Every structure is written in C-alpha cells, then in structure tokens.
Amino acid sequence: MAYKIINGKEISAAVKERIKKEVETLKNKGIGVGLAVILVGENPASKVYVANKKKACEELGIKSFEFKLPEQTTEEELISLIKKLNEDSEVNGILCQLPLPAHLDEGTVINTIVPEKDVDAFHPVNVGKIMIGDFDFLPCTPAGIMEMLAYMNIDVCGKECVVIGRSNIVGKPMAMLLLHKNATVTVCHSKTKDLKAVTSRADVLVSAVGRAGFVTADMVKEGAVVIDVGMNRNAENKLCGDVDFEAVAEKCSAITPVPGGVGPMTIAMLMQNTLTAAKKQNNI
Ligand code: NAP
Questions:
Q1: Bridge partners for 206 per DSSP
Q2: Which residue's alpha carbon is at the smallest distance from atom 4 of ligand 1?
Q3: Which residue among 113, 157, 189, 205 is the one 20 to 30 A from 176 at the CA level?
Q4: Global pTM value
Q5: What are the pLDDT digits (tens) for 161-184?
Q6: What span, in angstroms and rounded, lies between the C-alpha atoms of 162 and 241?
Q7: Pocket of ligand 1 (CB under 6 A)
C-alpha cells in the first residue's frame, strides 16, 4: 500500500512560522514573550530537551530564562524559585523539566506553578479543564499529534482510535483530545488482554509505550493511520519509536517516522502554549 509520511519537521516548521509572526506582532506592540525553563540535575536526555527548547525560543523571538540547578537542590529552593517566576511579569510560561531527582516531589512542584503559566498543562487545574473541554493549554505531545492530524486532513470524527499507553502526559490527554473530536476511543495499557485484537480495529493507532519494535504489522489494520510517540534506542543505539516502521508502513495509509515525527511537534506546541500564555496575560 502506498503510504504517506506524516512529516513532523515540515508541520512543526509551519506551526513555528505562524508563532514567529505572532511573537513579532506582539513585540511591535511592546509586549515580549518569555519562557522560563528549570532543569534540576544532570539527566542527559533532559539536558538535550532543555537545549532544544532554548533553541526554539531563540528561533521564534521568545525570551528564554534558563535555570540549571544542582542535583542536590532542596524542594524549598525549587519552590521558592518557582514562586518568584510566578510573580515575574517577563515570564509568561514556566516549565520544570521532568523527571526530577527522586528527593523532589513532582506533584508538589507542578502544583506550585500558577495554572496561567503552566505551559506543559500538567497542573491539576489545566488537566481538569482538558477533561471538560474548556482549556487554555493542551499538553504539548498530544496537542502536536492533533495538529499533525489536522494538517494531514485526517478527520477522526466517528473513527475507531486506539491509544496504547495511559500516562498523564501522553496517553490519557491524547484519548481526551481524540474524544473531543468525536472519535470512538479505546485506551490500552499493560493489563489489556489481547492487545492485538484491540489495535487491529484502529483506524488511528497511537503508540506511547516506550519500547522499540513494540507495534508489529500484525497489530495494525490495513489502511490505518499510525502515530508513533515512542522515543527509544534500538540495539544499534539509534533513536527509534515503538513501531516496527518498515513492516507497519506497508499496511498504513499514513505514519509518523522517528525521528522527525511527533518529537518536533512537541516543542512547537510548547512555543504555542507560551505565546497563548503571553496573550492571555496581556488580555489579548
Ligand atoms: P510511560 O509513563 O512509561 O507510559 C507507558 C505506557 O505504556 C503505560 O501506560 C504502560 O501501561 C504502557 N505499556 C507498557 N507495556 C505495555 C504493554 N505490554 N502493553 C500495553 N501497554 C503497555 O511513558 P510516557 O511518558 O507516556 O512515554 C511513552 C513513550 O513516549 C516513551 O518512549 C517516551 O520517551 C515517549 N515520549 C515522546 C515524546 C515526544 O515528544 N516524542 C513526548 C513524551 C513521551 P501501564 O500504565 O499499565 O504501566
């Protein structure tokens, strides 16, 4: 089957171009857009993510405030920094890169960021708003996937959509966003019985498991759209997704590659959320 590649690089470039123009328009009105990114410790993957976020800010004219804190930072120190940033009018969005070192409680830290600046949309207030469909920010990865589907003119209304994974940052909000677009949604997880029977029904299959080669061709319906959220390393230490790309692509109508699929969209949507925050805080 001839399949289309859903090109996250191309789609994120279009999204970023739109954001850049809006940031410029705001600047011309004397309104700056700023994002504070906090990194605690030395997690190598987190360092790469934070560097990429900083680069995206620079590209789009968004001011980035970087806070690199040592591994042994106390919860009081981190919370005191977040409280300062909550009050700083130059900072429109605050992001604390997860995971945090084990001695810091993620829930406490996330809850300290004011919901208006919570550009990751992890605060319970924002999570609740997503549930009822009245939201300011959407979590970046699921939002990026919805943007990709829209760009590709893939309408999920009435379709069978299956999400593998139920994390708070990907699986659960993904299911909710698909539901808001009138899809019939099934969420699978490690206790799902007969996963293949469920995934084989999917018109749109989203995999957010975190295991290389997890989604094989026999799990996918002919003509399905496959979205691969996974970011894994294969045996050769190369970045790869959850999906056995070569074999699955042959059965699909459209598929996201890894790298160059969902990843670039996540950062673009973070920039979008920062812009949205700046506009809301300036009553625009
Ligand atoms: P997570 O919190 O570890 O969640 C993984 C999910 O997969 C869990 O819900 C788990 O089920 C489920 N699972 C594990 N084994 C399974 C099995 N055998 N059958 C069915 N379900 C199974 O991971 P996450 O944070 O959602 O991330 C998932 C992947 O996406 C990772 O590779 C991560 O690096 C990647 N990611 C990529 C981006 C991006 O921008 N591209 C952003 C975020 C995450 P249980 O709940 O039952 O344990």
A1: 163, 227
A2: 167
A3: 113
A4: 0.97
A5: 999 999 999 999 999 999 999 999
A6: 17
A7: 141, 164-167, 169-171, 188-192, 195, 208-210, 229-232, 262-263, 266
